[in-house]
Every structure is written in structure tokens, then in C-alpha cells.
Amino acid sequence: MANHSQFNFQDAASPIMEELIKFHDHALMVALAICSLVLYMLTLTLTGKLTSSTVDAQEIEVIWTILPAAVLIMLALPSLQILYMMDEVNEPILTLKAIGHQWYWTYEYTDLKDLTFDSYMTPTTDLPLGHYRLLEVDHRVVVPTEAPVRVIVTADDVLHSWAVPSLGVKTDAVPGRLNQTSFTASRPGVFYGQCSEICGANHSYMPIVVESVPLACFENWSSMMTP
Predict the structure, then answer these.
(1) Rounded to whole angstroms, how far apart are CA atoms 151 and 76?
(2) Whole-angstrom Cα distance, residue 57 to residue 66?
(3) Phi, psi at residue 102, to the nearest 5°?
(4) Any stretches that span the bilayer, and where are they (predicted)?
(5) FRET partner for 200 with CA separation of 20 to 30 A, picked from 53, 126, 206, 215?
(6) CA distances (Å), 8 to each of 2, 94, 214, in order?
């Protein structure tokens, strides 16, 4: 989860998030190289060291045509690769349906019989010592570690967005429409997110908590949750 005065991303907890962080670093280095080149040329011009003028320079025209194209390709290829990775849903072990309401989430484990619950934010007055204000919920989403999970996202009233940064997941919840995403939690842990679409007065009070546990623990939890 995010910490006070944090400048970097949250620790990646899924392969998709790891790729997103790598792409961010790659794009940042490309942008830094472009800015350095532009500043260098401006410095030469302002200091009078670049005084030559020419009417026809085919070599320069070729360079400033090919170089931007190469930069765009360097950014487009890894971006498209990640985009297709995020859209792939290959043989999920578990399918979870997340329904956004004002202002809570309903979860349905469609592969398990009668496993449905609402998830509300835990009020500050009821918060146990050491838990996180505005981030804890009364019922967490529990998923098995290292297992592909498909999430079907929709809404009951207005636009919402189901987002968990550590897992690299952010999917809009649209009334009357089913959107899907997937993730694979690469390690056990508790990962926090929030509704990321302004949805009314209490938009800030509908957090998301995903808990990744070993498969045996998940089976025990699901057996206790089903009647």
C-alpha cells in the first residue's frame, strides 16, 4: 500500500504490475533523453556556439524524420505488448463478479455455490488498533496465490471503478455492462484499492481489499463462508 511521502509505485504483487513499472521506467528514460537533447541544442543556440545557417540540409531532414519514428516505435511496442497481456484471460482458476453500489461493493464467487457478500468500509469508530483508516472493510476479497483470477465488473447505479494498484488492475464499473479483467497475485498479502471513479458524496468511502492466501487457506475460507 502507499506510504506517507512515497514517490515511487507500490510494490508490484502481480506480473502485470511488474511489467507496468518496467514500462514506466523505460518511457521515463526515453523522455529524459529527449529533454536532454533539446536542452543541449537550446544551450548551444543561446550561447552563440551554434551560429551556422543553411537553406538545404537533407541529412538533417532525414535525421529528424527517422529519429521521432524510432522513438515512437520504442514506446509503442512494449505498450502494445502490455495492453494485450492485460486483455488476456487464460483459463482462470476463479471467477469473481464485483458490483459497485453507492457506496459499497458486492462480490459474487460465481464458481462457488451461494458465496456472495457485501463489502463496506469499516467505520473509524470500529477500527481495530493498527488497521488502516478509510481502507479497511468488513469483508475482504480472498483469492488464492499464484492462481489466475478473472474479475467481472459492473455497477448497479452510477459509474464506479474497481482498482487495486499493487495488482495492476483498474476496470470501470458501468451500469448495464459487464467489463472484465484478470490478475494473478504473485505472493501472499493484503492489497488495498479504492473506487477510482467519482460516484457521489461518499465516493471516498468505498475501499477495496484483496487478500491473497495459499490455496489450502482459500478452500478453508470458502467452506466457512458458504452456508
Answers:
(1) 27
(2) 15
(3) -90, 105
(4) 27-50, 62-84
(5) 126
(6) 9, 31, 28
Answer for the pair 88, 143: CB distance below 8 angstroms, yes or no: no
In tens, the pLDDT along 92-123 reads: 999 999 999 999 999 999 988 889 999 999 99
Report yes or no: 109 and 222 within 8 Å, Cβ to Cβ. yes
Residue 170 identity (one-letter amino acid): K
In the numeric block, which cell numbers belong to residue 155?
455497477
Which position has the grid cell 483508516? Answer: 133
Residue 21: C-alpha distances to residues 17, 33, 82, 179, 185 (Å): 6, 19, 11, 24, 16
**pTM over cut 0.90:** no
The answer, yes or no, to whether the previous bond of 64 is cis (omega within 30 of 0) is: no
With contact defined as beta carbons under 8 Å apart, do 124 and 69 qualify?
A: no
Class of domain 94-225: mainly beta
Q: Which of 168, 180, 162, 166 is nearest to 82 (CA)?
A: 168
User: For residue 79, what is its C-alpha cell?
Assistant: 505498450
User: How far is residue 23's CA from residue 195's CA, in Å, rounded to a whole number?
Assistant: 24
Q: Which of 113, 118, 111, 121 is nearest to 194 (CA)?
A: 121
Burial of 191 (0-12, 13-18, 19+ CB in 10 A): buried
> At 23, phi and psi to the nearest 5?
-65, -40
Q: How far is CA 43 from CA 34, 37, 38, 78, 107, in A?
A: 14, 10, 9, 33, 58
